[in-house]
Amino acid sequence: MAADPNVTTAQQAQFLPTVARQLPQRKGTLMSTRNRLRARWRRVTLTAAAGTAALALMSLGATTASASANAHRAPVRPTIVLVHGAFADSSGWNADIAALQRLGYPVVAAPNPVRGLTSDADYVRSILQTISGPIVLVGHSYGGAVITNAARGVPNVKALVYVGAFIPDEGESIADVPDPTTYPSKLGPDTTLVRPFPDPSVPGGTNYDISIKPEDFRAVFAGDVNASTAAQMAVTQRPLSLTAQTEKSGAPAWKTVPTWDLITLDDNAIAPAGQKFMARRANAHIETVHSSHAVMVSHPDAVVRIVLDAANDAG
């Protein structure tokens, strides 16, 4: 800086000590300000870092919670639809229903009209069409012929389970499969009653109901059920119409739907060898149990086990 020509040497001498005294003070002020700025910047940096860490933890927590929720979300359980056959009613499934419900499965016991294969299948199909989500469809005895047809055109039926049941192919009826000559049983003219009833849907206007004689019921249908229970079942049995016995099956659902079959080895209503023939033809997963035809009453554990096998596959 150039010297001011208007300032004398004496004035300069007087001014310089004053400047000299002020310089340390200004230097100290600058240092103090700089230190304060540094501290403030450090606090800002630490605060920003803490905020970033907190956001990261929140994001991690949300991700972990979401993953945990997905991991613990219960799988969708299929609805188990049970279809009884002839000479029985839905109460025969009571023990099976209780066991499945305890395991958390929704269950529907479909009342089978037992009037005609086509109309019975249409009725059961109408029930299936009201159910959302996967279905495991179970049929006993004549109910097997019904589910064979009822599942047709219902895409959420994911498994068919036959228990001591008929498994007809297209064009067959339960009167001719399994072949009664090759696979005879105790169910026949000697052990059944036939009663006429008016039915305008058949030629001549008269149809026939077929039921098992009460005195033969236990031997034919429920050999391993206690006598008092078998006697009650004989009284409450739903008869099979002649139309239901002789009407031909349509295209079978078992050709496209995974199939299981529980074969009842002590069955006097459908010969076990005939059951095996039908099961193998349907490419079914086969399980067996030493049981009478009334397997859902006498061996509900075996029925539940095969239903769960099908349900696990369907799920």
Explain what the structure shows.
- This protein is an alpha/beta fold and 315 residues long.
- The chain has ten helices and nine strands.
- The chain has helices spanning 9-72, 94-102, 117-128, 142-150, 214-221, 227-236, 242-246, 272-281, 295-298, 300-314; strands at residues 79-83, 107-110, 135-141, 157-165, 192-198, 206-212, 240-241, 259-264, 285-289.
- A six-stranded parallel β-sheet has the order 2-1-3-4-8-9, with helices on both faces. Strands 5-6-7 form a three-stranded antiparallel β-sheet.
- Helix 2 (94-102) crosses helix 10 (300-314) and helix 3 packs across helix 4.
- The longest helix is centred in the first third of the chain and has 64 residues, at 9-72.
- The protein is globular and about 50 Å long.
- The termini are far apart.
What is the rounded distance between the termini? 92 Å
- The coarse overall form would be globular
The main β sheet shows up as: 6 strands, parallel
By DSSP, the count of extended strands is 9
- In terms of quaternary structure, the protein is single chain
Task: Give the averaged pLDDT, no decimals.
Answer: 86
Query: Which consecutive residue ranges, at least 5 long each, have pLDDT under 50?
Result: 1-31, 44-57, 59-71
How helical, in percent, are the residues?
A: 40-55%
Estimated share of beta-strand residues = 15-25%
Q: Please work out how many helical segments DSSP would assign.
A: 10
Query: Strands of the largest sheet, in order across it?
Result: 2-1-3-4-8-9
Q: What letter string, H or E per element, gives the SSE order?
A: HEHEHEHEEEHHEHEHEHH
Kindly name the structural category: alpha/beta
Rg? 42 Å
